[in-house]
Amino acid sequence: MCCECCKEISKDECCKTGLGAVKRSDREKCRFNNSREINCSIDIDSCLKDIFPEANRWDYLICYNNKAFFVEIHPANNGENIKEVLKKLDWLKSNVLRKVKCKNLKIYIYWIATGRISYSKRSKQRKQIEGKRIKLVSFLSV
Residue 126 phi/psi, 5° resolution? Predict the structure, then answer.
């Protein structure tokens, strides 16, 4: 269902089975309880680079257990990182999420930190991120 709902996001050849579209170096940040339920993945950043060459593009879509996980792998150690990720989120909402065709599809937005997260759980930065419905984590674990 998820892959079908998201097929208009990019060209058909960009949609890979399992984690096939996720760079090997980024796969270690993504942990799934049942890897057989990873439906497909899209490297949004690479696949839409020609169409949006100057944009701050989101990294990946991973469809798992018929849920859509939009994943950004990015440092989380200063205020500039938040500005960058929020720009990417605006782009994601304007150019990608509106192409998701199924109304009942559960959508999750994750920022997976490369390295240490320097924002405490009670900080205003963390509240700003969570206010945008972004889950900031060290690893995606579902």
Answer: -65, -40
Q: Are 140 and 68 in contact (CB under 8 A)?
A: no
Q: Which tokens belong to 63? A: 């469809």
CB 60 within 8 A of CB 30: no
For residue range 11-47, what is the model confidence (pLDDT) as tens digits? 778 999 999 999 999 999 999 999 999 999 999 999 9
Q: Which residues of the chain have pLDDT under 70?
A: 1
What do you get for the CA distance between the two ends of the chain, in Å? 18
**Helix (H) / strand (E) containing 117:** strand 107-117
pTM for the structure as a whole: 0.94
Neighbours of 61 (CB within 10 A): 29
Q: What is the residue extent of each domain of the chain?
A: 2-141
**Nearest residue to 60 via CA among 103, 101, 33, 25:** 25
> What's the CA gap between 75 and 21, in Å, rounded?
21
